Amino acid sequence: MNGARAERLAIQGPSGPLEAIIEDPEREDTRYGLLCHPHPLHGGTMENKVVTTAAKALREVGMPTLRFNFRGVGNSTGVYDEGRGETADAEAVAAWCAARWPGRQPVIVGFSFGAYVALRLAQRIRASRLITIAPPVTTFDFSGQPPPRCPWFIVQGDADEIVDPIAVAAFVERLNPRPHMTIMPGAGHFFHGRLIELRGAVLDAIRGD
Residue 27's pLDDT is what? Predict the structure, then answer.
């Protein structure tokens, strides 16, 4: 769809090499996409369909994307660290991307556990925008995280069987400024059968203000 060639590489992280994939459509854009996958202890990897769908949406508008495996996943070294070490992993990857694409700002995307890491990363580096898909607001301490300085978009299915959509809506209501929130009726946590609509929601977030 976007003609991007996949480049596999290892990026040095705090606990050793991190397995990563770059896909670059080689079009002019001032941004790049950095994607964070779901929970490492529950089968989450950079090959997750929600993550790869979001990455395709970013490349559709001309952005190169980088997906990577957190520590302890696939060929990435290290062990699960409840989001702390994974945030450090993401920071190391972002620093590598800044050298690869100087002057470009990241669009940070995270799904489920990756949404928690993505929010923490967006508070530590300068980002173009943050897109969190099904953020697990009752499992991890989102309430202790201030909103990022960039535009923030949330995509949530209202039939999510893992992340409580009511809790996500209540979380958004308490924030100032509030993130832009897109509710997908009937969509479960993994957006089975709804990936085309998810792609559209991510495209809307990329193009929104």
Answer: 86
| Residue 1 pLDDT > 60 | no
Distance separating alpha carbons of residues 202 and 111, to the nearest angstrom: 12
- Using the 8-state DSSP alphabet, how is residue 208 labeled? -
With contact defined as beta carbons under 8 Å apart, do 21 and 4 qualify? no
Domain extent listing, the chain: 5-207
Q: Which residues contact 76 (CB under 8 A, 6 or more apart)?
A: 13, 16, 17, 18, 19, 68, 69, 70, 89
- Measure the CA–CA gap between 189 and 163, rounded to whole angstroms: 7
**CATH match of 5-207 with 3.40.30.10:** no
Q: Determine the Cα–Cα distance for residues 197 and 175; give it in Å rounded to an integer.
A: 26
pLDDT in tens, 146-170: 889 999 999 999 999 999 999 999 9
